[in-house]
Amino acid sequence: MACSHCGDTGWRPIEEAGIRKVVRCECWREALTGKLRGDARIPPRYRKCDLDSFVVYPNDTLKKVVKNARAFAKRFPSVDKGLFFVGPPGIGKTHLAVAVLRAAIQGCGARGLFYDTRDLLRVIRSTYNSTVRTTESEVLRPVIESELLVLDDLGAQKTSEWVDETLNLIVNVRYNERRPTIFTSNWEDNPDDDPNSLRVRVGFRMHSRLHEMCEFLEFDGADYRFWDASNGAPSSADLLTLFKTQKRLGRTTGRRAPGQLKAQLRDGSADVRWPGGKAGTS
């Protein structure tokens, strides 16, 4: 059915101060935004993630990270640096990264792109196969040229000379062209002598460049993947209690919850509810 305002032309006539003119119709903007979201390669699991649906609970570092993410999304594209979300698995780093990406697309029609780092490397490597018609440059060009790029789970990839060279190429070109990038990683930004640090996982050269081109936002929180979805969506009180339980059971920051926590959450012996029933219902 044709748009009642523009007749599907994309231009809506208006009159201002007695002068008739045309402006872009909302249907055109909505169609463009939908196409940009589709082109951004956001995985189905995260396509509805936005900043308003991110549950915040009493956690100072989490509140600061969400505040900074909102500020970045509001200022984009007038930003000097990208963002780097650092923290253990399951606390919402990818949700926040995608939410900012979607906000940039919605707010100013940004050409954005999402890639899991390992998947990006797999796609690039597949171009070396003679049966694949896509070339390496065809994969790299949109990654390098997108107005806002999200590289998820940096440091999870197996290291090699080729991996280092490829990722450094992407990071360096985007840095030189002043194109903002959002990264997420489970690896903490610890001292050089920690073998599990981000610096060791990505290399000293890239680590230095990342600090120059991004605002690092480190935080901890509840691993929502341990929440029993049969109880419905968790409230802020639910997540706060889960967070306290996980910390009490000794979850190591930057790594998945230990077997003790998994077992207690699975068999229901971990106390993740308020006394008197599900949080927020009593």
The CATH C-level class name of the largest domain: Alpha Beta
Global mean pLDDT: 85
Shape: globular
Number of structural units classed as domains: 2
The largest sheet, given as strand count, sense and whether it forms a barrel, is: 5 strands, parallel
Put simply, the count of helices is: 10
Strand arrangement within the widest β-sheet reads 4-5-6-3-7
What's the CATH H-level superfamily name of the largest domain?
Answer: P-loop containing nucleotide triphosphate hydrolases
Gyration radius, rounded = 22 Å
- The run of helices and strands is EEHHEHEHHEHEHHEHH
Separation of termini? 49 Å
Q: Helical residue percent?
A: 40-55%
Summarize the structure.
The protein is α/β, with parallel strands linked by helices.
Describe the structure.
By secondary structure, this protein is of the alpha/beta class. It folds into 2 domains: 194 residues, Rossmann fold (3-Layer(aba) Sandwich); 53 residues, no CATH class. Helices cover 42% and strands 13% of the residues. It is built from 10 helices and 7 strands. It has a 5-stranded parallel beta sheet with strand order 4-5-6-3-7, with helices on both faces. α6 links the parallel β5 and β6. α6 packs parallel to α8. The longest helix is centred in the N-terminal third of the chain and has 16 residues. It is globular, with a radius of gyration of 22 Å. The C terminus is likely disordered.
Task: Name a few traits of the molecule.
Rossmann fold, 10 helices, disordered C terminus, 282 residues, 2 domains, two-stranded antiparallel ribbon, alpha/beta, five-stranded parallel β-sheet
